[in-house]
Write a structure and sequence with these properties.
single chain; alpha+beta; GMP Synthetase, Chain A, domain 3; 3-stranded antiparallel sheet; 8 helices
Length: 246
């Protein structure tokens, strides 16, 4: 093999000396940006794309390669080329497109003939990326829907908590009495008992006193207390604690 055949283009050597896209993306990165994480691996190279699912457009691309300098240059060049393209556009690129990007002159190959086979990985990687994108997009959409539901639920809980804690003690006791009358007292009274609300402290501690048969019932500190507390939490405020006066 002659020295001329071993020559790499100046663009190739410049790229090799300043690799910009080496690295990985993770689901946390995609989630923070509301994007899909698309991964594709073939032999010694793995691609990581963050894709805007609204436009199916590659927002950012990274890669890892372990096959030496030429694999690094091919991976870095491919990442630079796909950023800003739709997934379909990116996956339509050919190995010849990447090699041509590295040429100094249109008619002079960027790498020696013996190294040209390294560009075969381009089309294999893009084929895998195209196959995997629908699943990656679906997962991103589902994750976004869950995050939105969690946010709405948290917001609603926060608003409910603010509303409850903004009431006066008398107003809080009134709300508790309403829930007790509707959900708790009928069952207690059927067994000859009742419950009285004595105090509400800091909007969280509800001091109660059992009356009648409930005062001597073993479940007043177990099942009955647990049911009362869970019912008040469900209908009023999730941080309520019911404490019976002994």
């Amino acid at each position: 093999m002659t020295v001329a055949e071993e020559k790499f283009s100046a663009v190739f050597e410049e790229t090799a000396g300043a690799i910009k896209h080496r690295g990985a993306y993770y689901q946390e990165d995609a989630g923070e940006k509301g994007m899909a994480l698309l991964e594709a691996k073939f032999k010694d190279t793995k691609l990581y794309w963050l894709v805007d699912v609204k436009e199916d457009r590659v927002f950012s691309a990274r890669f890892f390669a372990y096959g030496g300098k030429i694999s690094l240059v091919v991976g870095d060049t491919l990442c630079a080329m796909v950023e800003g393209l739709t997934v379909d556009e990116a996956c339509s690129l050919l190995k010849t497109d990447v090699e041509a990007r590295l040429r100094d002159a249109p008619d002079v190959p960027a790498v020696p003939e013996s190294k040209i086979k390294a560009f075969d990985a381009v089309e294999e990687l893009l084929k895998i990326a195209k196959e995997k994108y629908p699943a990656a997009k679906g997962a991103a959409i589902a994750r976004a829907a869950i995050d939105k539901a969690d946010f709405q639920s948290t917001t609603e809980l926060n608003l409910a908590a603010q509303a409850w804690l903004g009431l006066t003690k008398d107003e809080q006791k009134e709300q508790i009495e309403i829930v007790l009358d509707e959900h708790i007292r009928p069952a207690l009274m059927n067994d000859g008992g009742n419950v009285q609300v004595l105090d509400v402290t800091a909007g969280e501690k509800v001091l109660v006193q059992y009356q009648g048969a409930c005062g001597s019932c073993g479940s007043s500190l177990g099942a009955t207390l647990s049911f009362m507390e869970s019912t008040l939490r469900k209908h009023i405020y999730n941080e309520l604690n019911v404490v019976p006066q002994m």
